[in-house]
Amino acid sequence: MAGFSFAGGDTDRARRLLEARERDRAAFEARKLQLEEETRRRGVQPREEKYDATTSTVDDAVTRRTVGLVSKSDYGRLRREALGEAAPAAALAAAPAAAEQSERQRAAQKRKAERERSREKQRQRSALSFGDDDDA
C-alpha cells in the first residue's frame, strides 16, 4: 500500500472536515469561557475551590477530640473550636465530661422508651378479650 494516494476529492473532503472540527472546537472553547464568566457573575464557587482542604483538616481535628457518640450540640461546639472560634483548652477539658453526661442521658431515655413500649404492649394484651362477646 505504499503507492496508495488519495484522489483529489478525498483530500479536499478531509481538509473540510478538519476545518469544521477546528471551528467546532473554537466554538466550544468560546462557549466554555462564556459559561465560566456567567458562573463567576452569579457568585457560584468554581469546582476547584469548592472542595477546600480546610474542611478535611477541621474534620480531622474534631475526630481526634471526640470518642464515641457525641450529641449534635457537642459536635457543633467542637467544630467551632476547631475552626478557632472558641478556646481549645476548655473544649479538651469539657469534652469527656459532656460526652459521659450525654451518654448517660441517652441510656436513661432508652430505658424509659423501653418501659413505655412494654407498658403499651401490656395494655394491648389486656384489651384483647375474647370472653366478652355478646353474640346471644
From TrEMBL:
Residues 85-100 have a biased composition (Low complexity). This is Uncharacterized protein. It comes from the Eukaryota. GO terms for cellular component: nucleus. GO terms for biological process: chromatin organization. Residues 33-57, 85-136 are annotated as: Disordered. InterPro entries: XAP5 (IPR007005). Residues 33-52, 101-123 have a biased composition (Basic and acidic residues).
